[in-house]
Each structure stands twice: as structure tokens, then as C-alpha cells.
Specification:
The chain is globular and about 55 Å long. The two termini are 13 Å apart. The protein has 311 residues and is α/β, with parallel strands linked by helices. Helix 1 crosses helix 12 (295-309), helix 2 packs across helix 3 (121-133) and helix 4 packs across helix 8. Strands 1-2-4-3-5-6-7-8 form an eight-stranded mixed sheet, with helices on both faces. It has helices spanning 56-66, 92-106, 121-133, 157-170, 173-189, 191-201, 208-219, 224-236, 240-243, 267-272, 290-293, 295-309, and strands at 9-17, 23-31, 41-45, 70-73, 114-119, 137-143, 253-259, 279-283. The chain has a domain at 9-149 and 237-309: 3-Layer(aba) Sandwich (Rossmann fold).
Length: 311
């Protein structure tokens, strides 16, 4: 049962400067009536190629049902944030530092706990946030994302390594980014055919209006070099070493939501993550767009975690 039937929060857009001066777009939801005891902030961390729209239902639910303060932000080169002023800084670690800058700008209390809900590549970014300030993270919810190298779910490891070598050493990032930018514009221009291809191949399970239309529209704005550098960095490093120890001290409650049709990683790899989570759920028929096709199921899983730390 939902505890509030009407919006009881205020939406506050903001700007926060990254380490290179890039202005990051944030959106905070603040309850109009402060709870008697200060609760953790719910931080939503988006995926690569995404602006905030996929995680909005989770942020709204945390604000509406629990009266929680929630915060979302767009990565550099994404959504309403500026393109990176120093592209060479782009990495999961830099985006994680951005996340903490957004939290610090929102909440002056340096000891305030946070709940992280992360999607896709955002899982790797969020794990880097944990590497930096693990004691602040009370709950970690990973949705359809891999803590391992970013391309290993898409292709054999040797082919992934060869792809990165081709992009960085043979073509170079400048040429790779130009080609990628061209493909992004094509995708944005032909969103419905791309949606049909995604549905036919099983990569997408949601409706055109629910996912593909806003997603492909955003590709026209996405900074291609940022995307390329994220993929290179995300494949070279990963954050599995953080994930394996995340709940060792018993202070961070860990939830993993996977999909049996998701390309983030092979199912056998996803199943191996179960031993590192307090709750692991494999959703049937769920692909990488599961936040739109399986919204209610994912909300229910997230709310079980929120019940532990926000009630």
C-alpha cells in the first residue's frame, strides 16, 4: 500500500561543477515536510547513452512512498549536462567523483548515508563511488548492469579486446568518435526502424513510446567522444574487485536485478554475482530495457530494499 496519495515533494533542478569545470545537471526531490529523523539520500546513477528518464519512476517512488530526498544527475556529455571540458578525464572514476560532488552540493552533512540505485554502466560508476566512500553507502541496488568489463557481455573477451585495440590504436579515438557520432545521428534519425530491429533481435522488450523514442532522441545530443572514452575505460578496468567485497562488513545491503534476456553479461556470469548479493533476482523475459518493460517488478524489488533503510 502506498503511504502517500499526492505529491509531497518539491523538484529542484541544479548545476554542479565537475573537476574539469563541466556543469552537471541535477534534479533533486525534497519532501515538503521534513521527516522526524534524517533518512539516507537516494541517488540514481544512469547508464551510458541515457539521460535520467529511465530511473525517474524509482526516484519518484522513493520520494512519494517514503518521503525520501532523491537526487539524479546526468553524466558529462549526456542529457542536460555540458560536454566534458577535458575529454581526457572521462572515466567511470571521474563520473563517480561527479556523483559525490552532486551529493555534497545537495547535503552539507559529510556523514549522511546514501542509497545508490544504478543502471547499466551506472553500476560500474556507482561501484567506483563505493570505492571512494564505502562507509557512506547504506544500500546498493544494481539494475541490469555488470560490475565486470563493459564489453564482455556483448562478445567474446578476445574479440572485445581486439575491438578496443582497433578503436584506440588503429583508428584512434578521434576517428572512432567521428564514426560513432555518425552512427548516433543515424540512430536518432531512424528511431522506429532501430526499435523494430531491437525487438526482432530480442535486445528490446518495451514499447517504442516507453523506451526507444526518448532513448534514440537522446542519441542526437549524446557526445560521441564521451561515449567512446567510457566504453574504452569501462572495458579496460571494470569494478568487480569492489563488488566482491561490498557487503563484507555487513554495513551495505546489496541487491542485484538481472534479466534473462539482457546482454549486459551471459547468464552464467550473472548467476555468479548472486553470492555477493543479499538479494538477487533474475527477471524472466527482461532485456536491457527492463526499467521500461518490467517497471513494476523492478519497483517492487527496489522497495523491498528501501523498506530496510528508508522506513
Amino acid at each position: 500500500m502506498r503511504r502517500n496519495t499526492a505529491p509531497t515533494w518539491e523538484e529542484i533542478p541544479g548545476r554542479v561543477a565537475a573537476s574539469d569545470g563541466t556543469l552537471l545537471a541535477t534534479l533533486a526531490r525534497v519532501p515538503t515536510k521534513e521527516p522526524a529523523t534524517k533518512r539516507p539520500i537516494v541517488l540514481c546513477v544512469n547508464g551510458l547513452s541515457n539521460e535520467r528518464f529511465q530511473l525517474e519512476p524509482l526516484a519518484e517512488e522513493a520520494a512519494k512512498r517514503y518521503g525520501a530526498r532523491t537526487l539524479t544527475y546526468d553524466f558529462r556529455g549526456h542529457g542536460c549536462s555540458e560536454n566534458p571540458r577535458n575529454p581526457r578525464e572521462v572515466s567511470a572514476r571521474a563520473f563517480a567523483e561527479d556523483g559525490w560532488r552532486c551529493v555534497d552540493a545537495f547535503e552539507a552533512d559529510a556523514g549522511c548515508k546514501i542509497v545508490i540505485v544504478a543502471y547499466s554502466y551506472g553500476v560500474q560508476v556507482a561501484l567506483e563511488m563505493c570505492r571512494m566512500r564505502k562507509s557512506r553507502v547504506e544500500c546498493f541496488v544494481a539494475v541490469l548492469g555488470s560490475p565486470e568489463r563493459i564489453l564482455d557481455g556483448l562478445m567474446p573477451s578476445a574479440l572485445a579486446d581486439a575491438t578496443i585495440f582497433m578503436a584506440t590504436r588503429v583508428l584512434g579515438l578521434r576517428v572512432t568518435s567521428w564514426l560513432l557520432g555518425l552512427s548516433l545521428r543515424v540512430g536518432a534519425s531512424f528511431s522506429y526502424p532501430c526499435h523494430l530491429i531491437g525487438r526482432a533481435t530480442g535486445y528490446l522488450k518495451s514499447s517504442y513510446e516507453g523506451f526507444s523514442k526518448p532513448f534514440f532522441k537522446h542519441l542526437a545530443r549524446l557526445d560521441a567522444e564521451t561515449w567512446a572514452r567510457c566504453v574504452v575505460d569501462g572495458h579496460r578496468y571494470g569494478a568487480m574487485d569492489v563488488f566482491e567485497k561490498l557487503r563484507d562488513d555487513g554495513e551495505t545491503f546489496v541487491v542485484v536485478v538481472a534479466g534473462d534476456k539482457d546482454f549486459a553479461a551471459p547468464q552464467r556470469v550473472m548467476r555468479s554475482w548472486e553470492r555477493y548479493a543479499d538479494e538477487f533476482v533474475m527477471l524472466r523475459g527482461c532485456a536491457h530495457d527492463g526499467l521500461r518493460s518490467h517497471t513494476e517488478e523492478i519497483l517492487a524489488i527496489a522497495c523491498r530494499a528501501f523498506d530496510r533503510v528508508l522506513s
